[in-house]
Amino acid sequence: MSLDVTNLTATEIGRRVREREVSAEEVTQAYLNRIEALDGKLNAFIRPTPELAISLAREVDEKVGKGESLGPLAGVPVAIKDNISVPGVETSAGSRSLRGYRPIYESTVWERMRQQGLICLGKTNLDEFAMGSSTEHSAFGPTSNPWDLDRVPGGSSGGSAAAVAARLTPLALGSDTGGSVRQPASLCGVVGLKPTYGSVSRFGLIAFASSLDQIGPLARNVTDSALLFDAIRGRDQRDSTTVDYPAGPTAEKVETGIEGLRVGVPAELMGEGIHPETRDAIRRVVDRLSALGIQVGEVHLPHLEHSIATYYIVACAEASSNLARYDGIRYGHRTEAAEDLESLYTRTRGEGFAPEVKRRIILGTYVLSSGYYDAYYLKAQKLRTLMRRDFQEVHREYDVLLSPVSPTTAFRKGEKSEDPLEMYLADLCTLSANLAGVPALSVPCGFSAEGLPIGVQLMGRPFEEATILRMGRVLEQELDVPDRMPDLG
User: Fold this and answer.
1) Is the domain of 218 the same as that of 114?
2) How far is CA 423 from the centre of its chain?
3) Most buried one in 82, 376, 404, 460, CB count within 10 A?
4) Is residue 487 part of a domain?
């Protein structure tokens, strides 16, 4: 095969497979070869699944040969974050506590992708139980950023973002609880979408914070991201939080332009804590939109200053509850040094969880404990309601809110590991979208002086993913972002 399919977009791969210009098996093998050759430098994949991938590719090729009608992503490979269940494939959530666990059921998102002919290349690395902003907190070792192997790819979906950026896969799935799709997308120079809470089923997602978690796509461009979002969205009777999503393919609306849209820039996300290079890159985006005739104005989200405190109270409280099930009784890691029931629990959890997960469980248990529930957890929930109202008020006048995704570009491995608060501040710009439940998109908008990617965040009204994707598509076309690719040798 003379064509290097790893340089093609997911949209182009799907078209070529349907038109028999290339087989799904050839595409899949090309990506498997690239993973084998390059992932040793990145550690983006915890476990590739070559046998499953080739089997699924052959099924697609058989359907093509029979002339069956196939969807736009049939034959396109996808990588899946290792907290999303694929039957028979070890799903560890990056934790020692779940090593060896193989689900006997499939997540709704994988079921929908499989039915539409997507091909699972394997499971990608993440911070343990999706708790982190750097993909350094994994039982399987850290992932490297393809743009600079000494730096982090962001987290917790760092493996998925790094794999897309390095052309190890054209598409990937991540989960976003406080920025875990968007922040690594920004740091790795790819597109990442956090859908509206309730638009994508969480059935089969290993829970971190159930009222915040949302599965979302990572891709090389906005159109591919929209196609994957269309493939996984919609109501699921196995997840009571899902809703009937507005009709019509989102991807078809991506090219309809942004005439008449109004953009607000939250002042709280352009001030203290934002690196000057990042701030300048966002201002260039604003200038370009203004030159296109888009109304841009400064807005205020007055309760945003409490977002980090609110998020880490709510998220840790829910994590404490969700992770109580990992006790060594039914599945997962079980200590070999138990003397009685109490030591079974304590030693199993002490051995199975790494320090960051323990820290969040302790914080969550504390804020839910007697005497502290009202002072912390209840107050945080009230603040969350006020933040949601802030978004609703601003969105009455502005269709899209625009901000940085990450305060800085990718930082060096170990740079923030000794100071949890510094690591938590990496999510400064992304947490509010999860707390409010609104959709948010990260789109590459430039590079730093060191050649590291910078992303811009677009936040929209609930279930208006099409609006932020439309704007993201225009920015792809209008911004003078160099067409670079990480050099992995």
Assistant:
1) yes
2) 17
3) 82
4) no
| pLDDT 10s digits, 217-260 | 999 999 999 999 999 999 999 999 999 988 789 999 999 999 99
Query: Which stretches of 191-237 are assigned E, i.e. beta strand?
Result: 191-194, 215-219
Residue 223 resides in a domain: yes
Active site residues: 81, 156, 180
In this structure, are 96 and 185 located in the same domain?
A: yes
Domains held by the chain: number: 2
pLDDT for position 70: 95
Q: Find, among 41, 217, 205, 44, the residue nearest to 138 by Cα.
A: 44
Spatial separation of the C-alpha atoms in residues 389 and 366, rounded to whole Å: 28
Residues 6+ apart with CB under 8 A from 31: 5, 6, 77, 121, 168, 169, 170
Write down the pTM of the prediction: 0.97
Residue-number span of the structural domain to which 458 is assigned = 5-256+407-478
> pLDDT digits over 9-22, tens only?
999 999 999 999 99
Percent of the chain whose predicted confidence (pLDDT) is above 90: 93
* DSSP letter for each residue of 311-365: HHHHHHHHHHHHGGG-SSSSSS---S--SSHHHHHHHHHHHHS-HHHHHHHHHHH
Q: Is residue 467 located within the same domain as residue 334?
A: no
| DSSP β-bridge partners for residue 84 | 205
Same domain? For 327 and 433 the reply is no
Range name among 39-43, 181-185, 335-339, 382-386 with the lowest pLDDT average: 335-339
d(CA 152, CA 158) in angstroms, rounded, equals 8
Q: Has residue 220 been placed in a domain?
A: yes
Would strands 119-124 and 77-81 be described as parallel, antiparallel, or unpaired? parallel
Residue 269: inside a domain: no
CA dist 65 and 67 (Å) reads 5
